[in-house]
Amino acid sequence: MTDNASTETSDQPHVLPRGIRFAGVACGIKASGKRDVSMIVTDRPAVIAGVYTTNQIVAAPVVLTRSKTPTASGRVVLTNSGNANACTGEEGMQNAQTMCQQAADLVGCDPSDVMVMSTGVIGHPLPMEKVQSGIQSAFDNLSDDEEAYLASADAICTTDQFRKTASSTVTIDGHDYQITAMCKGAGMIAPNMATMLGVITTDAPIGPDAAHASLKSIADSTFNRVSVDGHTSTNDTVMLVATGLTDSKGASELSSDGLALWQEAASQVALRLAKLLVADGEGAARFFEVRVSGAASDSDALQIAKSVAASPLVKTAITGGDPNWGRIVSAAGYAGPKITPDRTTLVIDGVTVFENGTPQKIDAAKLSAAMKANSEVLADLRVGDGPGKASFWASDLTEAYVRFNSLYTT
Amino acid sequence: MTDNASTETSDQPHVLPRGIRFAGVACGIKASGKRDVSMIVTDRPAVIAGVYTTNQIVAAPVVLTRSKTPTASGRVVLTNSGNANACTGEEGMQNAQTMCQQAADLVGCDPSDVMVMSTGVIGHPLPMEKVQSGIQSAFDNLSDDEEAYLASADAICTTDQFRKTASSTVTIDGHDYQITAMCKGAGMIAPNMATMLGVITTDAPIGPDAAHASLKSIADSTFNRVSVDGHTSTNDTVMLVATGLTDSKGASELSSDGLALWQEAASQVALRLAKLLVADGEGAARFFEVRVSGAASDSDALQIAKSVAASPLVKTAITGGDPNWGRIVSAAGYAGPKITPDRTTLVIDGVTVFENGTPQKIDAAKLSAAMKANSEVLADLRVGDGPGKASFWASDLTEAYVRFNSLYTT
Question: According to UniProt, where does the site described as Cleavage lie (chains A, B) (predicted)?
Fold first, then answer.
């Protein structure tokens, strides 16, 4: 059974799936000298599925990788950071293809078995000489130890302040399966992916179509429920790599019950990553959860929660530890879905500030102090008597975010 | 004919419409001691129309005033600032009614002929003793001179750094008509009104239904095309007061041709106010126009322009004078309407940075210097070959905005 407690944070040791090797190296794309090429290679052909940005302006690697998944013959997930290879025209597509060809030659597979991801600045051609030396070096450093996995997780980061990893073990029908994942943030984070890249690796035996459906469901309930700045990126990609290499007892493809168990465990891992991603939002000082109930449907509730989470006025109130609840209620009011104002109730960190359309007498200074003392704030909003509910997680909006993003390229 | 050049800024003297008096006084709702009660009274029953916030959470004065317009027997537009009378439950509605009754008693009309607007903090009961002394004092100070009009425009402001007024004279069929207007910003500014209040007064003879239709059209092309922070408020209201008192030659109700001329002139006045509102956005340092063309329809173009204008990453790039055009193009890509990436071209302040899907070689430092030297930036974005086009105006996003809104109530 799934044991949520086994979902570890990045501080804890990770057990890696069988049949997979990792590497993360620096090749000079990043002026800082930090790692910028990540390579994940399976020992044998593996199932690889992907979910991608919904932006119509998509980077060349997204166009290319999207055309290859889901597949049962995948071997490589190759990522560069520091340059998004987005809005780079025909040259960008050629560069993405060159990266795949080089990795395929090294690994000994077809270029169609290599998935490529890029993240970083938009609109600049990739420095291919550096990238190619990076790919060679990553290949030379592939290893199945935790150090290599962590280096790989480092190498997909851009403005992230810390690497984001999570893992879990799930036992299904007597077999132990590993789920070990990584992702990166940290700006352009919005629903329907973000400038986020993620890779979930597992040794569970899952077919390509099941892997695709499962990954989509996992992403919808985790990565698509977080927001830093509401800007959906050109590059967002989450990959699922399933080697199907189980313990010595052997195992056939997971049954639908088994897949459900695996998906629940993988969702916990992905949710952990999604929350790390929000906590590490550019300039984020505080992190908040908007929990909406009483809407007509779950999708209505999600739309309302997103509207609250996206409001700069709500975000700045969270930054200031300011229980300015009118901003939250009014953001629900313009979200779109029907709400019932005189059945609307808001509870912030356990304090009822607005009940059935009427403001409550509260000790605002005390509530503000409590909000400021926590790194997380919970806004629990009931908008009527319907059955719909949803949660959404977002970072606040700080002067540091503005400072950082005013100075990004020039 | 309409003479756009006659649309004056707030620095210039305003000619007031005939048959209308103004007052703006301080009654202590604002701790600062600034003016906080505005009163506009017509000499005789006048046409009053209104357009209102689309937020489902609406302030008591919006509920009340919305139920009274359009009308041909209007006499008063009464506004308090410093307190929005929003999310104030049953007590809030009683207070709004009390304000109308008091003004009606003073002016000698029915409470249904009094329109009330409020703006300021959400969720606090109105200090009615102060408000009532303010209404008396405003009535005592009513005057048809420019000083009273400017005091009235001051009294509707909240966090505005300057009052916003504009006026124009339009000659139709030999008659001169005045259009004299005011509005306030400056946070919670988003399409479909904002926390904006506005009053357009005129002495043109316009019937109530025509006034309503005309006002809606004016607002859609002006106030609904500006954004500071994307947060649609609970209180937004724009009123049109038409006294129908013309020059000594007399005039009957405007013909449809005459109304079109009047509407064009009034739209110019409203656009002037809308731009002042953006320029005075909370913490705004720079102001930008997004002009979209080549979309499938005008409404698609507007949706794309809004998406670009709302992106915190675009806004912070404008703040920094950073020609980070990938943020603009990618915000168009996730807006929703169909775009054609390889027919997408972006020109920033006259410099083509991206043409038909391919980045152009530019002198980024030079373009950045030019952006920084201007208080306005123009992003001209073609997204395909369709006939749809739209303009949208927005403020940037600064550390000052964040600082200000982190500290608003507590």
Answer: 194-195
